Amino acid sequence: MSGGRLGAVALSVFRESVRDRVFYNLLLFAVLLVGAAVLVGQMTAGQDIKIIKDLGLAATSAFGLFIAVFIGIGLVWKELERHSVYSLLAKPVRRTELVLGKYLGLAFTLLVNVAVMAAVLYVVLACMWWISPENIRASWESPALDPALLVAFLLIYVQLLLVTAIALFFSTFSSPMLSAVLTFGFYVIGHFNADLKHFETVIASAPLVWLTRALYYLLPNLAPFDVTAPVVHGQAVSPGYVAMTIGYGAVYVAFLLAAGAHIFARRDFK
Amino acid sequence: MHAIDTEDLTKDYALGFWRKRPYRALDRLTLAVEPGEVFGLLGPNGSGKTTTLKLLLQLVFPTGGRAEILGRPAGDVSVRRRIGYLPENPYFYDHLTAVELLDYFGRLLGIGAADRAARIPRLLDQVGLGAERRLALRRCSKGMLQRVGLAQALLNEPEVVFLDEPMSGLDPIGRRMVRELILGLRDRGATVFFSSHILSDAEAVCSRVAILAGGRLVASGLLTDLLAFGIKGWEVVVEGADTAAIERVRAMAARVTPIAERRYAVELPSTARPDVVMAEMTAVGASVVSINPLRDTLEDYFMRQVAEHVRERQVRA
Ligand SMILES: Nc1ncnc2c1ncn2[C@@H]1O[C@H](COP(=O)(O)OP(=O)(O)O)[C@@H](O)[C@H]1O
Ligand SMILES: [Mg+2]
Q1: In a domain? residue A185
Q2: Taking CB atoms and an 8 Å cutoff, what residues of chain B touch A266?
Q3: What is the pTM of this model?
Q4: B220 phi, psi to nearest 5 deg
Q5: Beta-carbon neighbour count of residue B119 at 10 Å?
């Protein structure tokens, strides 16, 4: 494993994705958010800054998901489809390094993406604060420029890292179509995973209980990464919770990357 | 130590969607290439040339047999610092330029920043890539991509260079450039292993060739050996000969073709002696314009080998 080579692979991914779609995404996001803020501001006379925060975090999640899935799958798939992997793998780079470097490159792209979105949201919130009269400001549940928002952004970012790892994992052995469907599937299931636990209590058959329990532990649990509700209502999110959630994400990501690299290292590039 | 060494190298691809059955793309190939050789892997489309190269670079894993480069097993990462590879119909990244691509690959090869900055423009000049080097690669034509592919294969001044159909997609100027590039590599002692289905390209640069058909090695050897037995006769062009003189020669000739007024191409069998014809012609005041040996070209040889292989297979079937 060489840092220089990982860095070189990661840099190429970052360059490619920045020139590909990401910046258009950011632009679209910013415009959308500002437009919505102005609209909401007009409608509610600045009453509900919550909506802006909700909207900003939801948009960050959604746009990030889009980038994570499509670029995440494209990372490996395009490399194989266009045969660029042939000349790449003739260089002194291990297949494992390639997978990891690609992942790091996209992780960095996503980081920039989430950071810019966070900055845009803060700018919009600052404007709201500035144009709102004192009595309205006083009615807000949480301050406009609430630092707790950063916690929400951080967990969104970790969730996106997890989704990227899922996309990368699937794309090491299946077609892009199937990978996209599976990744989105995992994302949706991931958010309703907790329901499997409840499901367990209402079924009688023992094998089915075991199956749902296995699925519950095997499938990613994404719901904990969404702390939008407490954050916009000004409720504290404990550092312990944040650390646990990040730890869970890190373990899951490590597992997926190891499995993906294992598959990638053994396959034929026909 | 051989530069390249394979023993019983075999590759089966799985065909079919539901019930996979193996399809043998390469069948027990045993080859050895010496350091400093320009070695041509020849064969018609689908004969297993690309498969051989991919096995040597471990882009696909062999079903059987082994492959070594510079004494190390194929797939050894450390040996890749010392080799270059041009894939068939190379393609790279949509949004990078040629310069950025080479810089990226240069980093992977562990070439320092100063070296990269010096080497990349020089290489791009050498392969004939002009202002296009600052263009996103998705806007490059096939010929331009081929040139970028060549440049990236030579970036680390490799000891062994693998070129899969290096002339394909290039215009005559490009083909000559590739020929000169290969000869330049040979002159500095590199080993060149290249595949082609165009035989005249191989004839111009190879010392040794192997011929594949249907995944099997059907012939290999020094180009001069493969062609030496092939002197089929002589072609003598004479000028100023009258009909009577030509009639005398016709007895020895396999064929006489009039070219223009009093000018003839006389084809002699390999048993005839061209100096006798020369003497006859000079005696009647005619002159000999040229004498050329009629050789088997690689093309003829190749067609014969492939035809034989096909016949063998039909007999077996
Ligand atoms: N990915 C693959 N799957 C199945 N068959 C393949 C694959 N790649 C090549 N082949 C088959 O293997 C044989 C050799 O192919 P190849 O090595 O590409 O030939 P060449 O480079 O000499 O044209 C051909 O019959 C081809 O159809
Ligand atoms: Mg080929």
Answers
A1: yes
A2: 61
A3: 0.83
A4: -155, 155
A5: 18
| Subunit contact A93:B59, Cβ cutoff 8 A | no
Q: What is the pLDDT of residues A211-233, one digit of tens each?
A: 877 777 788 888 889 888 888 88
Q: Which domain holds residue A35?
A: 3-265
Read off the pLDDT of residues A9-59 as tens digits, 9 standing for 90 and up.
999 888 888 887 666 776 677 778 777 776 776 676 555 788 888 888 888
In a domain, A270, yes or no: no
Chain A residues 20-49 within an 8 A CB cutoff of chain B? 20
Mean per-residue pLDDT for B288-296?
80
Q: Are the C-beta atoms of residues A146 and A192 closer than 8 Å to each other?
A: no
Number of domains in chain A: 1
Which two three-digit tokens encode residue B280? 């006859």
Domain presence at residue A32: yes
Q: Which of B58, B87, B96 sits opposite A87 (nearest CB)?
A: B87
- State the amino acid at position B204 in one-letter form: A
Give the Cα separation of A253 and A181 in Å (integer).
19
Q: Give the tokens for residue A39.
A: 């609209």
A10 burial (CB, 10 Å; 0-12 / 13-18 / 19+) is buried
Minimal Cα–Cα distance from B63 to chain A, Å? Answer: 11
* CATH 3.30.70.3100 for domain B231-295: yes
Distance CA B73, CA A263 (A): 21
Which residues in chain B have their CB less than 8 angstroms from residue A89's CB? 57-59
**pLDDT score recorded for residue A23:** 63
In a domain, A164, yes or no: yes
b/e per residue A174-186 (b: at least 16 CB within 10 A): eebeebbebbeeb
DSSP string, B197-264: S-HHHHHHH-SEEEEEETTEEEEEEEHHHHHHTTEEEEEEEEES--HHHHHHHHTT-SEEEEEETTEE
| Reported ipTM exceeds the 0.85 cut | no
- Which positions in chain A touch B96 (Cβ < 8 Å)? 12, 15-16
Task: Give B192's DSSP letter.
Answer: E
State the best of B108, B139, B193 to mutate against chain A, taking most chain A CBs within 10 Å.
Answer: B108
CB A161 within 8 A of CB A96: no
- Four-way CATH pick for B4-226: 3.40.50.300, 3.40.50.1220, 3.40.50.1370, 3.40.50.10810: 3.40.50.300
- Sequence ranges of chain B with CATH classification 3.30.70.3100: 231-295
* C-alpha torsion B20→B21→B26→B29, nearest 10: 120
Q: Is B24 in the pocket of ligand 1 (CB under 6 A)?
A: no
